[in-house]
Amino acid sequence: MSIEQEQMAAGSDPIVQVRREGDVAVVTMSYPERRNAFSMKMRLALTDVFQRLMHDDPDTRAIVLTGAGGHFCAGGDLSEMQEATPSLLALRERIAVGVRLFKLIYTGTKPVVAAVEGACCGAGLSLAAACDFVVSAETAKYSCAFGKVGLLPDTGILWTLPQKVGGGKARELMLKGDVIDAAEGRRIGLVSEIAASGCALDAAIAAASRFASYPPVTLALLKASLVNAGNSIEDACRLEIDLNPLTRQTNDHAEAVNAFMEKRKPVFTGA
């Protein structure tokens, strides 16, 4: 049974909703009364959904992550932080769940596109930065204001933000916690594409559908290369030598060449 079928059978309104657009799974954070805050329930639900989409759903070739109610994610759920402070072990597990989710998005085999409207703050920015491609509504707002609530940046952003915008700019955003708009996000490399307000999801699905049309094995190896090639020149060259021959031997590579020569659209199977 697919995730969508399970949700329909349960008859409830889950905090993370999944629907399909062809080869694209659209994952929606649905906690609009708190602007899709990154609560513990949200962390666990997102981790479960991404685990299954990345590893147990061959029909999904690309994923869109978005938020309900006109916002992406406003960051951590401060109402949870007003409760009694959990034990150190419980707090470590809370952070570890976010790390697992980050790794599923960032190192997973399928491309993930963020569709951002409204607030994208704190852990919301972490989620967007972990994605391969960010489509932003022109009215969206971004901030990395962990320090303002006495916390360190989490959910992988200590790695992803410097990768996206450079070390100096990432340091500035993390230290100052300033709010930036979509245009500035595009200028510094955080945002990949800007859409009109209310149109980010449609544009993100279009981008994800384009990625989903590529050979799945090549995409998986490309994501692995992008994750692991940035440590040194030797790592980049080693991955090129190790992984390129694998793509050359796939049926999808042969299909791509044949389709090009025959002036037709290729049909990729993931073999």
TrEMBL record:
Gene3D superfamilies registered for this protein in UniProt: 2-enoyl-CoA Hydratase, Chain A, domain 1, Lyase 2-enoyl-coa Hydratase, Chain A, domain 2
Recorded superkingdom: Bacteria
SUPFAM superfamilies: ClpP/crotonase (SSF52096)
CDD domains: crotonase-like
Coiled coil: none
Family, as annotated: Belongs to the enoyl-CoA hydratase/isomerase family.
Name this protein carries in UniProt: Enoyl-CoA hydratase
Species, as recorded: Trinickia symbiotica
